Amino acid sequence: MVPFWVRKLLFWSAFAALAAITILGYALLFSFEGDPFDKFDVVAVKSAPGGEHHAVVYRYHHANSSADSAAVWLSSGPQPAIGSKEPAKGAPVLVWFGAPQSIHLEWEAASRRFSARVNAAFATREVKQVEGCFFDYDQQMDLLCINTKKINLKSK
After folding, report:
1. Of 26, 99, 116, 137, which sits 20 to 30 A from 10 (CA to CA)?
2. Any idea what DSSP says for residue 69?
3. pLDDT tens digit string along 127-156?
């Protein structure tokens, strides 16, 4: 027969191990930027001179709202490949609930920023964080949300 104190020690050791595994699992799940269920598909890339900075148009599925959109992220480093499913890092600077092919990106040398032109009718909302627009698109299908502190918007 196993002494009571040994059984108690084994029970609490197993409990502590299970708690540590649970905490580690949650930490790993939420250590990624964004929702792990979001889906990305690179459809266009425009690079600044020098090729270090990029504006990337994604066909983007926002899992929390179940919204499909075209979204632009700004990135640095290697240029993403067209068709890549790799998640974008950070937050989008432009979200539009229309065809991604309608977004055209340019580098403006004078302002040293990217600009976007959308070849369709849309209603513009200037915001600091465009993520909130994912929950409004069903009320206004032509909605374009943009952070004009990060990217310029040119009229079509």
Report:
1. 26
2. E
3. 888 888 888 766 667 788 999 999 999 876
